[in-house]
């Protein structure tokens, strides 16, 4: 994967910026507060990764488009707030979504050959983790990345201890199939646990009811039989009343949804017409003839920006209404589920009532529902649970057998040896003192250095791991992005060594993007330097019209 171009657009500030990346090395250079980190973070923000953007950047409601290639094939990812859109080179929309984990993540994973699967900590179900997990080894964030390796994204606690899995997947120690099997095994084990709880409930019920074959059922009387029928009738009336209430609520939600949908259609139509007006305003001269009133109007910047303001208001209205539609859909789904549940209960109570009110005598009821039959029902359920557990356990045995076949101790040793040699070599090159070789040579270990040594030790980890990925992984490789290596008051010699190592360790087929205040006399070869100079103003009004014209068609489709 390579990044080609980043386009940024703020209709609120009427500013924009286009940055084109060199295929091998791009240095984004500038003093503090010129927006280097905001530019770099925007790359991953566009792909739905959780990065900490500057508050002023958030207030500007910046939209972004990243043009990138995968094995030479060009794509573009567009983000506007919580909306994402992925386009191919022909401009065809491949996916539009607001769901990162359940929709965008799996789609990108297939494109990037990112096969890592992790069990969700809450549900236990296997799932493809969000895009941030694909980019973790390739990003050193200014805020988080220099404190500990592979922690540049605020990924939260969605998965239990995912670090080891991420390392072994990206390094090539474990293939995609390994994680698919492990996730499946976790789901099966969760299913066995659920069945075990069901079995305990049934066994407790048998013990509590003392369901023994000697039970005769003589405790029942005719009066109790009639009272049972009356209770069922009352329950049936209550259920039918509840069903009418839920059905009315569902009908109201459907009406509200239709109204919002119609309003959104009108707003989108207005957006298109305003877009045509703006295009015409750009093409016309100093004055515009109005065919409606037959007069000439001054075609100044205020007029053009007024059109844009109206169009942005329509776009915001559409986004707000979309959020309401999502909320209505959830309420409707909940109401439908409650309706189905109520219907099931009504059928069940009605069936039981029919049996109780039939021509069966009390004696026949007791004889047909005696203890032997009740115990038999429990025994059948227990047998079904036992059979289900055996089936799941058998699948786990097959998984363990296949996982064992995937273990390649020699390959693992080769990978760990390659990493250890690179890491120790880089630690020495960066003048890291008191190297803990036991920690430094183990690929899954965290960096335990402190003080000014810590950032250099973290960099040594990232670069060694990156080269290991390019050497052994058959899956994803992405641009190596490093933001602000001068951390913890490094002296000039150490910073120069860090930048020199970043340049010299670039893989032949890799891409590196570096953000820095100063190059410390290091020379950029086979690359380019982009210098940011305006404090608190990465974007400019001079390119706003051009970027707006090129991005608007894509933004309108997501």
Describe this structure as you would to a colleague.
The structure is a single chain. The protein is α/β, with parallel strands linked by helices and 558 residues long. It is 55% helix and 13% strand. The protein contains 15 helices and 15 strands. It has helices at residues 36-46, 55-59, 100-112, 132-135, 163-171, 176-209, 222-283, 301-356, 362-368, 371-406, 409-429, 437-440, 453-472, 492-504, 544-556, and strands at residues 2-10, 15-20, 25-29, 63-70, 73-80, 83-88, 93-97, 118-119, 126-127, 139-140, 287-289, 296-298, 480-483, 512-516, 528-531. A six-stranded antiparallel sheet has the order 2-1-4-5-6-7, with helices on both faces. Helix 6 (176-209) packs antiparallel against helix 10 (371-406). The longest helix has 62 residues, at 222-283.
Write the layout of secondary structure elements.
Layout: E1 2-10, E2 15-20, E3 25-29, H1 36-46, H2 55-59, E4 63-70, E5 73-80, E6 83-88, E7 93-97, H3 100-112, E8 118-119, E9 126-127, H4 132-135, E10 139-140, H5 163-171, H6 176-209, H7 222-283, E11 287-289, E12 296-298, H8 301-356, H9 362-368, H10 371-406, H11 409-429, H12 437-440, H13 453-472, E13 480-483, H14 492-504, E14 512-516, E15 528-531, H15 544-556
Parallel strand pairs: 3-14, 3-15, 10-13, 13-14
Antiparallel strand pairs: 1-2, 1-4, 4-5, 5-6, 6-7, 8-9, 11-12
Concise summary:
Helices cover 55% and strands 13% of the residues. It is built from 15 helices and 15 strands.
Helix content: 55-70%
Report the span from N to C terminus: 23 Å
> How many H/I helical runs?
15
Structural class: alpha/beta
The run of helices and strands is EEEHHEEEEHEEHEHHHEEHHHHHHEHEEH
Output the strand order for the largest sheet.
2-1-4-5-6-7
Please tell me the overall pLDDT. 84
Radius of gyration: 32 Å
List low-pLDDT spans.
212-223, 358-368
